[in-house]
Amino acid sequence: MTTVITLDEGLRARKKRETRHALHRAAIELLHEGDFCDVTIEAIAARAGVSPRTFFNYFPAKEAALSGTDPDMVARAREFMLARPATEDTVTAVRGATLERLRELVVDAELWQMRRAVSQRHPEFAAGLVGANALAEKAIAQAACERLGADPLTDVTPMATAYAALGAIRAALQQHVSAGFAGSIEERIDAALAAVGLWPRP
């Protein structure tokens, strides 16, 4: 059995995602420019152009705003995977789903550079980012089984293949960020997948 869903993000959902992004960027900017004590909920809200009350509609605390954790991120990752054509193999589907995720995430190259700099200064902040991304990767791997109707308790192949692909893609993304987003992320992903034998070499 193959499971496929279609994506339909409405204007309200997009606006919500944009506001969350603005709050996250504001928090990162404040920490990038100063110290942790400079990052207050009032300062974040003011820089993002919203009220402190609105802040709490998106994040429970400033630490969450710094990590940018989106409660919809895991569900969206799963949806992206299940929306891939049923004819695609697992690696192709993971690649396509990840590129869809990146089209939502990599919309602010300067923010990614600031996040990288802040992560180097504050390792505890980096741990939060890694944890959030791990949940999204887990959702994609589980969806790899779901879209094929496979039981992960008896068939490890879809999930193992998905995680192998995700590991290569993570390396490509780290390289892309280190390079200042120069070049094509798609080409970097293809090269990384090819390096571990999961994609044809150019």
TrEMBL record:
Pfam families: TetR_C_14, TetR_N. Residues 40-59 bind DNA. It comes from the Bacteria. One of its GO terms (molecular function) is transcription cis-regulatory region binding. Residues 17-77 form the HTH tetR-type domain. PROSITE patterns: HTH_TETR_2. The keyword Secreted does not apply. Keywords: DNA-binding, Transcription, Transcription regulation. This is Putative Transcriptional regulator, TetR family. It comes from Phycicoccus elongatus Lp2.
